[in-house]
Hints:
Elements: E1 4-5, E2 31-33, H1 36-39, H2 65-78, E3 87-89, E4 95-99, E5 105-107, H3 115-125, E6 129-135, H4 157-167, E7 171-175, H5 181-193, E8 199-202, E9 214-216, H6 225-236, E10 247-249, H7 269-281, E11 286-288, H8 297-303, H9 306-312, E12 321-324, E13 329-336, E14 340-347, E15 354-358, H10 360-363, E16 372-375, E17 380-382, E18 388-392, E19 397-403
Parallel strand pairs: 1-15, 2-3, 2-11, 3-6, 6-7, 7-8, 8-9, 9-10
Antiparallel strand pairs: 4-5, 12-13, 13-14, 14-19, 15-18, 16-17, 16-19
Helix pairs in contact: 4-5, 6-7, 7-8, 7-9
Amino acid sequence: MAAKRLAWCVFFVFCVSTQALDNGVGLTPPMGFNPWNVFGISSKGTCKLPLPWAPADHQCHGFNESVIIAVGEALVSSGLKDVGFKYVNLDCGYSTGHRDSNGSLVVNTTRYPHGMVWLGNQLHTMGLQFGMYSDAGDTQCCSRIYNNPNDGSLGHENADADQFASWGVDYLKHDGCDSKPSSYTDMRDALNKTGRHIYYSIHGPKAVGSIANCWRTTGDIDNTWESMYDRAIENDQYAASASPGSFNDPDMLEVGNFFHGNGLTALGDAEGRTQFSLWALIKAPLLIGTDVTNMTKETLATLSNKEVIAVNQDTLGIQGTLMDNSTSVDVWTGKLANQSVVVALVNKDGENENTMELDVKKVYPNFNSNTHIRDLWSHTNLPNSGPFTFKIPPHDTVMLKFSQTAC
């Protein structure tokens, strides 16, 4: 296919949020694991992702104490903890759906027989951190399966925050089923009162750096190209709200989920690289959503790419944006510390390889004979003499870093 020459101007987003939640954590996007995309079971009893390697009668594989411990052990043994994945979070499904006579949340001891203090201690002993789930309404999302559930945090923010702190929680996802806006600020204040540094993520108001460390900007993701890429596009409109300590969240990673229960086209390795590239560039939380106890070597290689992770964790904290979508190859770019720039060339075509000739002056105006160009997926330094022509496989991404210092 003939090369497509870029003929557009690049504008960087310098307008960032002036307020960030001052709770002692979250200056860079969080990295960790959340079980929902692979082990989640809805209030209707349907599983988020049937596991094809499991027996036919166990493909709807929920999460419990033993699963969370196994996940923690896998993060350590695989080396993912060492590259930054430290949070191991619970999601909806740990409670009985009800509160006790004192108004405290009641843990489902069938699923978590040792309780939450024990579970948090086990994760802390592994060098990991412990994440918890709550809801800004009357009921947690998946607890609607129970009769008259009342385990939502609305009106219980102070008590729940104290309970989470007593469990040793380091991260809270405050969800949004039938939520009330007041609960997001009330939970923020309640967490701060505990004196414990707890990362605060919400699924409610958007672009609210004074309320939370990160906030969801999209609906729930699934492991199709359309779902993943649409969320990246939808999230793009909030770029100006991101800054250190305040990040947009287009939902969790689907890297490694190569199949889909309803027969839709599922993510492969190329799609996984693309999502990981984009989520790094747009400073999204990197929360793994695949079964880390049963990863392929390709999935592990994607998730443990230190050079791509460094883009996500860049101290400047400016969200990258979509700069050109006029051809089958989209161009995303973002500013990094030390006057560096990251560029992602995303082939939207799922069937054909596409070739792009990149005018580097358009993406990096400071380009000169001393410029260093690094390919973050091939881990190679590129010559800085043109033409810069890149062949991009279907649904794959070329990710480049331009800088004036050696990469």
